[in-house]
């Protein structure tokens, strides 16, 4: 069985969120196979189902006045940041009731990507995500509706890590964030990381990737 891969480039969060819902509906109805959307976002703060706002360090208006969009969304988890240099992946896959297993599979795929760069990364029981030492390399938060997932992961490639200082990422006090670029001490090409992520997903999920060039088959 195959899965489709769509590279959406740099896309505002609101537009990507709407497009996810379109694709999700198509997967639910059997109109398309499992689909992995890969993209970057302009600077944005998102708050998931566990968020109360207490892990925002400033009023919501401050973020919008200082170049961040801000959205309350239906994914799992608390508050996180997305921005340029961060590879965001939205795997819109049928998962049924096996949500926990699906999260572990995403983590396994990201651990494989990190290992390909010679990095020893690991998931932490009780918290979705992938870590190197005490620093989070990849945040993960999904939602499942009608047995199909959406939202997904955010892998720091060359992200400006200073932007994380305006929140308490994922509500975890005393923990840091890191990136492939910081860990390796060199530039890491985003196209290369995308290719490695797709290959890791193919291996973990046992699916064959098929790249889709025509982006908005479902209209935003």
From TrEMBL:
Substrate binds at residues 75-82, 139-141, 152-154. It comes from the Bacteria. In the reaction, the free carboxyl group of octanoic acid is attached via an amide linkage to the epsilon-amino group of a specific lysine residue of lipoyl domains of lipoate-dependent enzymes. The active site is at 170 (acyl-thioester intermediate). CDD domains: LipB. The lineage of its organism: Bacteria, Thermotogati, Deinococcota, Deinococci, Thermales. InterPro entries: aa-tRNA-synth_II/BPL/LPL, BPL_LPL_catalytic, Octanoyltransferase, Octanoyltransferase_CS. Its EC number is 2.3.1.181. Catalyzes the transfer of endogenously produced octanoic acid from octanoyl-acyl-carrier-protein onto the lipoyl domains of lipoate-dependent enzymes. Lipoyl-ACP can also act as a substrate although octanoyl-ACP is likely to be the physiological substrate. It catalyses: octanoyl-[ACP] + L-lysyl-[protein] = N(6)-octanoyl-L-lysyl-[protein] + holo-[ACP] + H(+). It is found in: Cytoplasm. This is Octanoyltransferase. The record marks 136 as: Lowers pKa of active site Cys.
């Amino acid at each position: 069985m195959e899965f489709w891969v769509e590279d959406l480039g740099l896309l505002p969060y609101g537009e990507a969120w709407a497009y996810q819902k379109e694709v999700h509906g198509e997967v639910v109805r059997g109109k398309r196979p499992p689909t992995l959307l890969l993209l970057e976002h302009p600077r944005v703060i998102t708050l998931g189902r566990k968020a109360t706002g207490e892990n925002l360090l400033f009023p919501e208006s401050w973020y919008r006045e200082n170049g961040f969009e801000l959205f309350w969304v239906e994914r799992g988890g608390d508050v996180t940041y997305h921005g340029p240099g961060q590879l965001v992946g939205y795997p819109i896959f049928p998962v049924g009731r096996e949500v926990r297993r699906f999260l572990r599979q995403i983590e396994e795929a990201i651990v494989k990507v990190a290992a390909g760069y010679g990095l020893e990364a690991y998931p932490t029981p009780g918290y979705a995500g992938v870590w190197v030492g005490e620093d989070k390399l990849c945040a993960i938060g999904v939602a499942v509706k009608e047995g199909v997932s959406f939202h997904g992961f955010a892998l720091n490639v060359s992200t400006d890590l200073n932007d994380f200082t305006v929140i308490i990422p994922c509500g975890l006090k005393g923990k840091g964030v890191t990136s492939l670029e910081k860990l390796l001490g060199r530039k890491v090409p985003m196209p290369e990381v995308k290719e490695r992520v797709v290959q890791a997903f193919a291996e973990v999920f046992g699916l064959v990737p098929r790249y889709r060039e025509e982006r908005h088959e479902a209209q935003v």
